[in-house]
Batch of 2 targets.
Target 1
Amino acid sequence: MKKQTVCIVIGLLCLLSVRGQRLSSTEVENPISPSLGILVGTAGGGLEFYQPFGNQFGIQAGFSLMPFDTQIIGTYGQQETRSQVRARLHNVHILFDWAPFYKASGFFRHLIINAGGGYFMQAKGYIQTTLNESYFYGDIEVPYYLIGEVNTRINWNETIAPYLGLALTDIWIDNRFGLDFGLGGYYLSAPSVQLTGTKLLEYNQANGPIIERNIRNYRFLPQLQLGVNYRFKLKY
Amino acid sequence: MFYMLTGLLALAGIQSCENPLKDVNILVSSEILKYTTLLHVSDTEGEPLSNLSVTIKGRDAAYIYNLEGRKQFKLDGGLLNLGIHPEHEPTPGNPIVFQVELSGSGYLTQVIPVTIVDQQFSSINAISVMDLDAAPAGVTVYTPTVALVNNAIAKTLILTTPLSNASEQSVQITLPVGTQFLDENGNILTGTELTASIINADTDKEGALSIFPGGSLATSNIYLAESSNAYSGVFNPAAFTNIEFFVGGVPVRRFSQPIEIAQQLDPGFHNVNTDAPIALGDQLTIFSYFTHEARWDYEQEATVEADGDALVSTFSTDHLTWFLSGNFLQACEQPATIQLEASWFDSSVSYPLTIEAVVAGKVAAAITVSINADNRIVKFNYLPTQGVTIRVRDNRGAILGEQAVNATCGGTTILSLNDPATVNDPTVTLQLYVRCPGQSEVISVLPTFYLYYKEHNSSDDYAFLGVVTDGFLSTRLLTVETVVYDFKAVWGNNIKIVGGHRVQEDNSGTVGIEPGDIIGTKAGATNLAILSEKCSEL
């Protein structure tokens, strides 16, 4: 699935490059237009404001909201469990853009390198785990409401996370709208895990360090984004 | 450069997507049964009994399980652990009520009524079952044989129990001429011989009272005169007798005509009706008890008469069973709450105390509990509000406090305790951890278990040390370094004995198979099997 995603992304890039080559201007001007964009991607969706400086620099600022919910069913220990996973990663960010090939014609003109940082107002995950099957103690079928749950809270510090990435920005759709594509990532603080259990699942604290070990690489938040920007001035 | 960066970013993204639950092992606590009770079954000499059959009966029997959640009940080392189904726990005003029948060849069958009330999470019941060949002092077992003519008594016959085995009270049974014997269906039994088993007990001897039906003078399922409702309360017996007759091996239930029973009374009996020593002309109440139904029935009133120097209670009956002459004190419907107060209580140090309810000089009920500052409330069932004194003893039998029970039904009696002799002894802490085979982490999912102790190689019985909760127990009953102890741990249906150990002030150990762990040297393979089995259940 992940390989397919990578292939699709690369294929899309190729398509965009063809489109970019055909429609790009040959005039020496900043490929970044003053504009407002809507972006959707792996790190959530948000709004982005673009402002060029000179011929090859720009700044972009915006926010991104990522609510992510899923369910994991699996056997961890002797019992099949059902885990509701909720992640909330919301940030405001500011990035500096550099268009190294602004003099080039075609696709490479739109390639920019972004660097900056994001402040994560919310960066946390929550896993609520319960048994997914009847639990028998000897001959006794223990009712669901007596079993309880394991609640795992994952927190990243509310600090500024650096960002580095590449983007194809403001690719011509028409004289008002441009297409944006970005690939990069935030480097987050090390996550901490708090695990509590209730009722019969109370004594599961030993799983806290295991989950912390599993997610210790959850520091890199990859961002693959697609978006459309609205230019404040018509571009011909 | 672009492709290199793209590849790096994709790789980093994929790498970070480890399943957060990988290697997680969700543990389900085995403490499903929050309400448990432990029956400590011994013969009248205190020897643990294991060769008895156990039957759970009564209203809430369906909700009673062993501590492994099974419907299998077996005595092991004299211990029987019972738990209540988690969906049928007691609530205020709705206790769980059942009976435990203990029977075996050569033993006097006992049916113990058990009531577990709201918040009474654990309790210990000491039960004596009499070996018919080893009656305690003050109990006479008399087994005469009588010839029958035409299935009947040929001429009026008087059976009198001898004053043997240190007994001071006897019973006299008069079978009139022509008496025939009926089975439970009312059929006349045929045979040439009547065999009898008559057990008579002195009521002023604590050992003899241990054979009292139900194991306690405070009891339930009592039907009073002209009442169809069962009551509970305390008996104050002046005499009690069990009579069993057999014709042709078939138990006799009734007679073709009434027989007469004259019970010799304890001369020191305190009649609670007159609040004075028993005297000629006093009225006593006669109750009968049918063992298999654990049911007491009012029979009649009897006047105290003289028989030579002795006082007797004489009455007629047409059926056989246990008979009691004495007083009955009806209980209030709410359990009596006893709150213990002491300056030496500590939230972490447990202390086994025996709390007795004393009525007319007799121990009507006794409970041994593991007390600490957080757990110092004891509830007694079946107690009346008048005439009851609560007495607290430490593990050496010393009385630490004594007070009349609160006269309000369901009220709380606050009892201040004196210092026990061990109050300034060092605290010994026992902490147990468990490491499952193949695991690096110790687990904290430990079941609650009972811990007993005795001095190594002592012929004494194991004494109750306390309840080990989450693997932890702190006590002042053990002597550090100088004394060698044997310990007995009772965990569900498992009993483990660890012999020959000295203790330090702080004792901790991990049961497991890693270097430094404890697995035991005497039964290491068995211990490992138990450990593996239990770990597989986690």
Target 2
Amino acid sequence: MQFDKPATTNPIDRLKVVGQPVHRIDGQLKATGRAKYAYEWHDPNVPYVYGYPVGAAIAKGHIVSMDVSAAKEAPGVLAVVTALDVGERKKGKFNTAKLFGGSEIQHYHQAVAVVVAETFEQARAAAALVRVEYAEEIGAFDLKDAMKTAIKPKDVGGAPPDTAVGDFDGAFKAAPVSFDATYTTPDQSHSMMEPHASIAVWDGEALTIWTSAQMIDWWRSDLATTLDVEKEKIHLMSPFIGGGFGGKLFLRADAVLAAFGAKAARRPVKVALPRPFMVNNTTHRPATIQRVRIAAEHTGKITAIGHESWSGDLPGGQLETAAMQTRLLYAGENRMTAMRLATLDLAEGNAMRAPGEAPGMMALEIAMDEMAEKLDIDPVEFRIINDTQVDPEKPERPFSHRDLVSCLRLGAERFGWSDRGRPASRREGNWLIGLGVAAAFRNNLLVPSAARVRLDHEGVITVETDMTDIGTGSYTIIAQTAAEMMGVPIEKVVVRLGDSRFPVSAGSGGQFGANCSTTGVYAACVKLREAIAQKLGFNSEDATFENGEVRSGNRSVPLAEAAGSEGLAGEDTVEWAKLADSHQQSTFGAHFVEVGVDIATGESRIRRMLAVCAAGRILNPITARSQVVGAMTMGVGSALSEELAVDVGRGFFVNHDLAGYEVPVHADIPHQEVIFMDETDPYSSPMKAKGIAELGLCGVSAAIANAIYNATGVRVREYPITLDKLIGGLPDVT
Amino acid sequence: MQQTGRIRLILNDEDIVLDDVPATGTLLDWLRLRRRLTGTKEGCAEGDCGACTVLVGRLLDGDLVYESVNACIRLLGSLNATHVVTVEHLAAPDGALHPVQQALVDHHGSQCGFCTPGFVMSLYGLWLASDRPGRPEIEKALQGNLCRCTGYEPIVAAAEAVAATRPSAVFDPIERTRADVKEKLAALAPRQTIRMGEVGNRVVIPADVGALAEVLAAEPKATLVAGCTDVGLWVTKQMRALDPVVFINHLQELQAIERSDGGLTIGAGVTYTQAFAALCEMVPALRPLIDRIGGAQVRNMGTIGGNIANGSPIGDTPPPLIALGATLALRATAGRRELPLEDYFIEYGRQDRRPGEFVESLFVPAPAADDRFAVYKLSKRRDEDISALCGAFRIALDHAGTVTYARLCFGGMAGTPKRATHVEAALRGKPWTEATIVAAAMAFEQDYTPLSDWRATAAYRMLAARNLLMRFYLETTGETAQLHRFEEVA
């Protein structure tokens, strides 16, 4: 299916199942522990053995030699495979750092060996016996230093690194009110609950692999490249995933090590990356340094807005696109953005939930708060004054649908925004109380997505697509989509996901999964409807699918009967034509936060949170709300505690576990509320839905920062906002 | 080594006999890899995330108690004569969910689902412990469970719904077998010392404290394991080989709490959960610290004796215990000796524990009625985090308001938990005034040379130590500067 013009009325608009608060269909499996994650696949007849990884102990340099003799002689050891053994490998398309192979060490904890043994304990014990001699080289680990030699890349994900409209410098200088500040965001860790894990089973040249992957086809392609086998020989499965947040978008070392280990040991091998490997072996959200400049008239109208960002990555890597949203979010005739990439020899920086916008909004939305204060305009109003219905860099391009203003106004009303006072003006006992707001913004991305839908003689609809459910609710919304399209109750739909034998879907990333994968299912259902109509001799245009029957004129046939003993199937791929060129598709929201800051200690506590989101049709208010609430929680960590500490001498992240990388605990999280604007966006897809999962994170941390400022009068521009950054500026206790 | 005896336990509804237990094997790996009970998850392998939470039933003073524990760091050898209950045991045979599971489904407390079984088990532990838990109790029960994608609000909502309605559990796997299990566990307590494994991989479960002393006399380098909350990490994070491993968590003689007029005697094997109940009764000011040590799982496993014996500079119990003037009893075959707790810590990694000795008990004297006492823990995250520093303060004043007694002890400021003797001297005999505090605070530099690590810089630690003294002073004069998260919990 080519989606090339805005959607008109279609069966989804019936909203009998889609849009309804359907409970997660995999909820029972998860509450009983029966959902099987990567490491848990098991055939009692298969003699699985265990692989344990060895990571590089230096950040940059080369392996001079490896001594694995003690490890090989350790009890139970079946094989030791080293990076030198497998030699230089071709790198997959999506990775920057090499996962395994060759003597070069690009970052700390890069995999240098896997030890395979009969039991897990034996493999772990033997892994400690591998000796490696390194030739260490001096690396760069400090972004503040490395930014001085940062480069301007040719492009950033297809977009230019710099944009300029009008005369930014001139307008900035000429404006009656202007503001210029620099913000920093730290390196952050996905820290999803399930660490990376894979099981590899070879049968001759064919490889079966169970893993924890957000993108089945990307993993399969890159694994084929790295192993130098045909892609078709690899069968990759990932039906349940214990969270990803971008950390499982791209092939990871566990899959490669399991495959090499299994080959060497001639046994099926399970490899899990220990928790500390998640931080220094895989990817993380890179730190940024961001400069934001805003100039405006006294009325609050922005006349110039500029956003520059610096981030680092390994040579050949990519930058964090933190200035991207500033190209689209607010009006202003004169504008500039620029993004620069520094070289750092830390683990690979790459996508983490809402890459670009998450850290970008952390800076921009504090700057908007600061500018509003300078103008003496309410920050909600300041944002509304500068709303735009067109792409401000290309005014001929309207937004497909943009309702930021309503999000702000409704949120302000519901949250009691009018109670907000001047900074440090509200105190309850030892608590300084403050309110903060930020806009939420994240683009809606469109990725091709395919599905196959089958109807059997019992009237059961089975959907097969390699789409993944990383906790997002894909199983449920895909079942809703098929039920709606085929006119059956959701109990009649079986959804099978995360298997490379199924048609290639959008996968889970960039908040495109829900809209794109359900549209792929929609397209396949259209094909199935056509096949059913054709078989029955109905004109498919006239056929109505409802109550388990297909009806045309005065004829109606139960689907089970229409299927016949052979059953029927439909398969299709949605391809996205150029609608996004003429109309900018984005999602919008407003975050409101109330905090308390202890006047004596500077400890910050969130008191309540509200998100109002405008993201097209909400396919399932339960799963959508869960995504937003979870994102708000992640935003609390991002604002208050999450920070990978860099050892700039040795070149690694020090707090590489959940004891040291402080994600929020439940006592940090108080009342949270989410409101969805009732809207549809026909430009996005026949589902008229857009992404929501990342929108929920964008802006939250800035709203918290702004609330802390309102509470204390202390402006912190370096995340996370810990008490030491507040304590010196707090008002007197008495 | 000659094998004597075997490890016996109950797993869900199955009697288990093990005669080959790896010395450093964890309960989690055994459940997942050997028993194929994969509902219990590994999130961190260090007792932080709670995805591996299971319940362990044991006899305590003749009662059968079930406590949530972290299976990831709980060594398998520590489970003799216990009943291990995993998430697979909860639903009825016909598949009907237990009310705590159903509530998580109904309130959308699960997204990726990886943390969910752990939350289920923590909530089930709470279900068993409390009929109508309030929010503070719920929060405490869930303190040791992390979730990264759902956020916590729906999970707490599920727990509150269960608490509000207390649906009848048609099938409650533990209640229905309680009497049987109690009888069985009583029969499983070892009557002779259990020994298994070859050199390099030996497990010893002494029959009693006398046998423990003999084992240690013969093997002075043995690793003693009580709660596994520290040694578990030596295994999962440092990949250390330990041999032999001597389990002492079952020794009832080390689990006595004796109250006397002079104070409390606490056996080295008493868990935090048990010890804190008694300690807080005697010294209510300990409560704010105790609520912030680990999560429920860690407090149910970790022992007071272990927290002292391992000699960690950032253990949370030594600073207040030293400030309270606690003394330690060490035992060996040769006999028993006592020493002030502060003298036990010699330097980083070195304690006054002679070959063959083990920590037997701790005596905590009751403070005088008008003593002022407080303890403050500073950590980057308020709950479930390791201290950057922990300071305990105890002073006594005479009628004129002069300091007659001062005892201050800090963790995180030196290589061991250490008293601030110079500050104490600067306080003693002085009026309890702000001027005295300001002057005395300067003496911290003579007491401590803290190090910088990623938890805090040396400068921060020094400044915070001074400020905590000021905070203590302000609180004795009526100011309050503490967040009370769980104040409703009795």
